[in-house]
Amino acid sequence: MSSSLYATLEPLRAALQHEGLAGGLRFLNARVPHRYTAAYRVQQDTLVNLDLFDKAGEVRPEFLASVPFEDSFCQFVLRDGEFRTECTAQDSRLDGHRYQGVMGAYHGVPLVDDHGGLFGTLCHFDTDERPLPDEEFAFLQKAARLMSAVVTRQVR
Predict the structure, then answer these.
(1) I need a labelling partner for 136 at 20 to 30 A (CA). Which of 4, 13, 63, 87 fits?
(2) What is the pLDDT of residues 29-88, one digit of tens each?
(3) Which domains are assigned to the chain?
């Protein structure tokens, strides 16, 4: 790991060390305009929310607590290794999807377990359209590698 990358990730590492997953999600969310930043775990045919940070400070909506796999955008992350859309309503990859146009933007990356197996997803999303610069998406990917150990340890 390069020293500049280490320095960039150091505040995230500190947030994770002091506040666990919740602190890591809060830190990541402060970097983006998206309302939500979340970690999800795959459990059979469902994505189960491990933790969620909401800029609005509201209680997690029930529909975000667990999402059927086929209704999630996380399914595309797990299939393709990442998924990015700043406007779901205009994204033809989502034609016919239950949440196309309902959830406005979604940017997600995989979380892996100790053996490199797919465990879940780390994502930014919003009910409004939201772009995510390439540099910030790259940071999310690096954050996911760092956070994977924390997430898998937390759910054991």
Answers:
(1) 63
(2) 999 999 999 999 999 999 999 999 999 999 898 889 999 999 999 999 999 999 999 999
(3) 3-154 (3.30.450.40)
